[in-house]
Design brief:
It comes from Polytolypa hystricis (strain UAMH7299). The chain is an alpha/beta fold. The protein contains 9 helices and 8 strands. α1 packs across α2, α2 packs across α3 and α5 runs parallel beside α9. The longest helix is centred in the N-terminal third of the chain and has 25 residues. Bound molecules: 2-acetamido-2-deoxy-beta-D-glucopyranose (NAG) (2 copies).
Amino acid sequence: MTIVLVFDLYGTLLSAESIARQLGVHFGEAKGTSIAAAWRRYQLEYTWRLNSMGKYDSFSNVTKNSLRHALAEHKVELNGDSISKLMEAYDFLSTFSDVPPALSRVAASPDITAVVFSNGTPSMINNSVLRSQDLSPHAGVFKDIISIDPVQKFKPTPDTYWYLADKVGKQRSEMEDMWLISGNPFDVMGAMNVGMKAAWVDRAGLGWMDAMNGDTSPTIVARNLDELIQKIIEGR
Ligand SMILES: *[C@@H]1O[C@H](CO)[C@@H](O)[C@H](O)[C@H]1NC(C)=O
Ligand SMILES: *[C@@H]1O[C@H](CO)[C@@H](O)[C@H](O)[C@H]1NC(C)=O
């Protein structure tokens, strides 16, 4: 049977490290790193808050607003031009170094269907996949690039994963035929919550710590993406 691999994008295929570097040019390395971390934290927090309030805003707005929050918290300012440049940098993020070999492995496995599934808006994630210098050569691996935007809710709301299932032609009773592959524990838990299999890339090697659902842990954990894909292929 065909294996469906669903790749999260930001923090899984693409690293925001280049954004931290760009912030470092403005504010010095230590502060740049700290602002980048706060930016990512508020970006996620905003999506969850919007979900809780039953409201929606595009991920590009969420990303811009959370940057303003992170800057204000660090008591620094950036002009509109610099903010636009940082937002544009999202279209040119680098992949983690384990991503190209992993995607080559996927390309060499004809019985794998791979898609990208992200909170980003369609234009953000299309740009990210098609313009990133290291990801674009592999863009052909992906059968589809799926944004949650039409659902008007963010992951880990079940509706977003049901929508994904519709897009890849799976029924609600077939959720376990799909693997969510993510570096983000909240996404891993969201997928398992609707019955998908989930693989977590533990690049920091710190082990699974998410304790929200008691003893629940990812179907597969690996230190890098290539090893993870290998495990899924061998374990089927
Ligand atoms: C994004 O922000 C702009 C400017 O504030 C607003 O006009 C637009 O409606 C927002 N988009 C969504 C999807 O809420
Ligand atoms: C993004 O890419 C998908 C898949 O290739 C396509 O269906 C969609 O129309 C594109 N959307 C935008 C806004 O470019």
